[in-house]
């Protein structure tokens, strides 16, 4: 082998080694996308039960507020605006379709008011599995305009008899939020002899920055916004149920159960 051939072979070997290193790094990054996932055990108690605040028959008419508080607290050395809200409802859709709607983490902007972008960043297998989501929202009423860009973490248990999701803020991309803790809960119930689905939502927000008019808007309009959100999920569930019925009538084989979050990324 002459010097030229040896030099060419050496370059090929070097390129192969570099390629393998880069491929290995990329593979490790892909496998470690959810590294640093917290256990969502910050002390917030998820509301995984049927609240007794209202009769189920009353909740069939419209979502109702369980609790709603807006105020200020000294947190991390500063006075922060804190808002906490709980709401529940009963909808005329099967649990499996409402669960599927709640699973629509990668497409919330298609049907949830105020959501401009929702993107699944990663998921980590486990019992229950963890998910990380990028969520960008926009909200405006009267003179008030605001929006938030955040990375959220979720832990979801989707069983045959109930749906439970615990979520919290991992990172505020725009620096406007300090903390978010909350939960979703849904289960099948019987109301006046008919099968319905009960859904409960609870969230506690701590804002990192003050904004003129924020407390007033939270007091007057946040319940209205959450009510619209619950109704949007219910309408999405009805649409999914209609699609499944159409597919069944046409001889197609419907999925039967909610699709995984990973399949929504495609």
Describe the secondary structure blueprint for this structure.
Elements (H helix, E strand, L loop, with lengths): L2 H29 L24 H4 L4 E12 L2 E14 L3 H8 L12 E10 L5 E12 L2 E15 L3 E11 L4 E15 L2 E14 L6 H36 L11 H4 L2
Antiparallel strand pairs: 1-2, 2-8, 3-4, 4-5, 5-6, 6-7, 7-8
Helix pairs in contact: 3-4
Could you walk me through the main structural features you see in this protein, from its secondary elements to its overall organization?
- This protein is an alpha+beta fold and 266 residues long.
- 30% of the residues lie in helices and 39% in strands.
- An eight-stranded antiparallel sheet has the order 1-2-8-7-6-5-4-3.
- Strand 3 and strand 4 (130-141) form a beta hairpin.
- The relative contact order is 0.18.
Short description:
30% of the residues lie in helices and 39% in strands. It has five helices and eight strands, in the order ααββαββββββαα.
Descriptive labels:
alpha+beta, 8-stranded antiparallel beta sheet, disordered C terminus
Count of separate DSSP helical elements: 5
Poorly predicted runs are 10-32, 256-266
Strand proportion: 35-45%
Query: H/E element string?
Result: HHEEHEEEEEEHH
Termini Cα gap: 50 Å
> What would the principal axes of the Cα set say about the shape?
globular
Give the structural class: alpha+beta
Radius of gyration: 23 Å
Strand order of the largest sheet: 1-2-8-7-6-5-4-3
Main beta-sheet annotation: 8 strands, antiparallel
Helix content: 25-40%
- The average pLDDT score comes to 81
DSSP, total strands: 8
């Amino acid at each position: 082998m002459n010097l030229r051939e040896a030099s060419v072979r050496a370059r090929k070997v070097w390129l192969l080694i570099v390629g393998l290193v880069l491929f290995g790094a990329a593979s490790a990054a892909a496998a470690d996308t959810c590294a640093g996932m917290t256990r969502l055990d910050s002390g917030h108690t998820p509301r995984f039960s049927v609240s007794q605040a209202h009769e189920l028959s009353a909740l069939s008419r419209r979502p109702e507020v369980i609790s709603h508080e807006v105020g200020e607290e000294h947190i991390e050395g500063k006075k922060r605006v804190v808002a906490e809200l709980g709401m529940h409802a009963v909808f005329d859709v099967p649990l499996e379709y409402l669960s599927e709607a709640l699973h629509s983490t990668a497409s919330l902007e298609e049907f949830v008011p105020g959501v401009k972008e929702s993107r699944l960043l990663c998921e980590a297998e486990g019992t229950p599995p963890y998910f990380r989501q990028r969520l960008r929202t926009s909200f405006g009423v009267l003179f008030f305009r605001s929006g938030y860009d955040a990375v959220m973490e979720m832990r979801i248990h989707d069983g045959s008899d109930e749906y439970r999701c615990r979520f919290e803020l991992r990172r505020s991309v725009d620096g406007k939020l300090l903390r978010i803790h909350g939960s979703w809960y849904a289960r099948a119930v019987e109301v006046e002899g008919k099968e319905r689905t009960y859904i409960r939502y609870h969230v506690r927000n701590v804002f990192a920055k003050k904004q003129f008019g924020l407390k007033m808007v939270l007091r007057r309009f946040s319940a209205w916004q959450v009510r619209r959100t619950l109704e949007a999920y219910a309408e999405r569930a009805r649409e999914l149920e209609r699609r499944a019925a159409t597919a069944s009538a046409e001889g197609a084989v419907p999925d039967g159960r909610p699709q995984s979050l990973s399949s929504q990324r495609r």
